[in-house]
Amino acid sequence: MNDITRFRTAPVTTAEAKLNLFAPVDKILDPSRYQIYTNVYEDERYEVSVSGTRLTQIHRDILDIALFYGSYKIEEEIEQTIPVRTFSLYEIQKHLQYRNKNNNTWLKEKLQDLKRATIVIYDKEKEDDIEFNIIRVAKRSHKLQEYVLVFEELYFEFFEKSIGINYKELLSEILKLKHPQTKAVVRYMLSHQKGHQINIDKLLNKIGVQGGQRNIEKHRKAVIDELQEVGDKFNISLIKTTNDDRRSGDMTVKYIKHEKVKIQHPLKEASLF
Questions:
Q1: Number of C-beta neighbours around residue 131 at 10 A
Q2: Rounded to whole angstroms, how far apart are CA atoms 162 and 181?
Q3: Mind listing the pLDDT tens digit for each residue in 245-260?
Q4: What does the pLDDT look like over 181-216, one tens digit per residue?
Q5: Which residue among 109, 138, 202, 221 is buried most deeply as judged by most CB within 10 Å?
Q6: Which residues of 169-198 are buried (b: 16+ CB within 10 A; e: fewer)?
Q7: pLDDT value, residue 191
Q8: Cα separation of 174 and 81, whole Å?
Q9: What are the residue ranges of CATH 1.10.10 in the chain?
């Protein structure tokens, strides 16, 4: 299996889910503040910044649909070594379960966001960084009568060094989730190869939930309520870590590796997760 084939089967990197490349929100209230580089994640080893626009869980949803349900027939026909996907905008909105499936202007804007966003991941340990855009071309082909996404070469180089994940069989359930914070949580947990457990507040911090205590409490409650309702579909459960009713939000989120989630390692030595 070469990497172009691996990209077809496991095109989402675990690094994307763990480094908060896609914010746990539906939209950015002030898009203009992201025209310059903005730090979106930092831990002991990595520092991540994004410029051009801030990507959200809506962008992740659209990208997932294109990656998992789009056609790669062009790659096969012209022996393309950079990933290409073709799809109809109607089908994207159908998978998003939108009532009006012909709002192409909105969807085209989101695809252009994916094209504009520049991501820099700095590795403190190696004192080196990776910089890339995800999409090189996002346009309608009159010849094919479909929309075409051509991925950036530098993004594919990033993928070639990363662990890939395939959650296609769970994607429809992810898209049904009501809260973007829950989507980010689910994607984060599914990206772990051997299961994972983490305190709910640490998890919210990992996925990039920001704001004051009231805002964090609101998002914590939304995530807990939704996971209690549908978490079993993803092998995600909540464990109460205290009997103190005043600390009812003190929870551990536990994920047991889902049999429908496939993890694939790079052909080259992995540099990210």
A1: 13
A2: 24
A3: 555 568 999 999 999 9
A4: 999 999 999 999 999 999 999 999 999 998 888 889
A5: 138
A6: ebbeebeebebbbbbbbbbbbbbbeeebeb
A7: 97
A8: 30
A9: 168-255
